[in-house]
Amino acid sequence: MAGACSCDVSFNNTGVPNCVPAYLVWKKFIVVPLVANDGTDNKILSSDTLNSAFFTALINHADASKRWYPLPNMKNIESTKAENITETFNDQSVIFVAEGVRGINALLVGHGATLAGQLKAARCSQFGVYPIDGNGSLYGYTNNETGALYPIPIDNNTWAPVWQMASDTTVQKIQLTFQFDANLQDEYIAQIVNSDITGINLLSTSGLVDILSTDVSGSVTTIVIDMYNRYGSNFNKLPMEGLVITDFYDVAGGAASKVYDTTSSTALALTSVTESTTIPGRYTLVMTVSQTIGDVIRITPVKTGYDFTAVIANTVTLA
Length: 319
What we know:
single chain; mainly beta; eight-stranded antiparallel sheet; four-stranded antiparallel sheet
């Protein structure tokens, strides 16, 4: 339990140097799994180069268990600490048992039920957060180690995003409440000041947007597909616009301007990719060589800021 006494130290020194960086109000959280699927801990190392390339790569990481998930900026973030747990005896003496648990209450203003549903999924995994303050400084948890900064661990069972509908006097918002892990020790919360981070303002970062797809048609030479995200009108979702031929690959990290025939295990070159001028997000893909009816084609778009997992899974059968 946090706050347990050590037999080795009776008291700690209390001198404070000049110019200690202040801990400011948190404005944003970046959600990060505590442990990746390969068993490694997700963390920032003192040897990492904290620049735009470093953070962009983490936000766009192909491995979802190593990816960073920035939430929208928040308002009215409040951090509360529950009262310490103590035991009182008949002689009115009190013995300390454990520190109270720290909790968070925050508002994601202007966001709706779809995002709230996306956030609820985190409750099923073990994760933590890197808070970002108003100056763009990043906070994490040292675990009383040197050379590493971990996400601050969350009690996932307390993670509660609740959509609040708009009223005559208020806008829609998501109220997010959660508690940090019960064993959290405040003294191990540490800061990477914004001046140590170059080329990027972490307050401006966004999480990936999920892209979905619907097959319109698929012939032996041409595939037509609609791509869109989760948001917008129920029957008219917001389209995924602006893709070009070099955004399509045989496999993520593979060769560009191609799709993949899963039936013949062959990468297929594309002659052209054209977005409709009348139906945004509708793409016509023309293959260089005619294929066989019944072949199953996998389409793999790749673009920074987007997750095309659902598109890749939605294969097209040629007819």
